[in-house]
Amino acid sequence: MSGKEPNPDFDWKIRYKGIHRDRQFESANALYSSMGIERRDKQSRLTALIRNWAFFDAPHALFFTMEKYLNIMGAVDIGIYAQTLSLLMNENGIANCFQGALGQFSDPVRKFLDIPDNFGILFGMSFGYADEQAPVNTTRTDRVPVENSITFWDCKNSDIPIY
Fold it and tell me: What span, in angstroms and rounded, lies between the C-alpha atoms of 6 and 106?
């Protein structure tokens, strides 16, 4: 709430463009609409955003960290692991929410958890049993058809060598 700029361990300077920006906008609109927050109500949107750092009232949170030198390859591995963990939790009735925002202000978390300087916080996850009555938990975002999000390349009819 202080307006302090984020100090992430990894590059957060990317700004979505085109279809990615459209999808980001649509997802935010669905989320805020489910909470009864209008787009022009900046204070309520900020208050909702701040709930990230209260873990959306979940009783537990975890932080995904990795050694900073691992860069994008480490992030890929952590993402694969995190998705598997999320699916296993869900399968066992434990709701969870990935939170990129938990990687934006790493200094207090690093200090509290005594995380070494050579490790960076990528993102976090809040988890617990879902409050099915909470309006925010009714939010559903649109999904694009699989043929619009995956490209299958036909390598058999190509002169690209396959090893």
Answer: 8
Amino acid letter, residue 33 = S
41-99-11 Cα angle (round to 5): 95
Phi, psi of 121 (to 5 degrees): -95, 120
DSSP secondary structure letter of residue 105:
B
How far from chain centre, in Å, is Cα 123? 7
Question: What's the mean pLDDT in 67-72?
Answer: 94
Q: What is the pLDDT of residue 67?
A: 97
Q: What are φ and ψ of residue 51, in 5° steps?
A: -60, -20
Q: Which residue has the higher pLDDT, 93 or 140?
A: 93
Q: Where are the domains of the chain?
A: 18-138
CATH 3.40.109.10 at 18-138, yes or no: yes
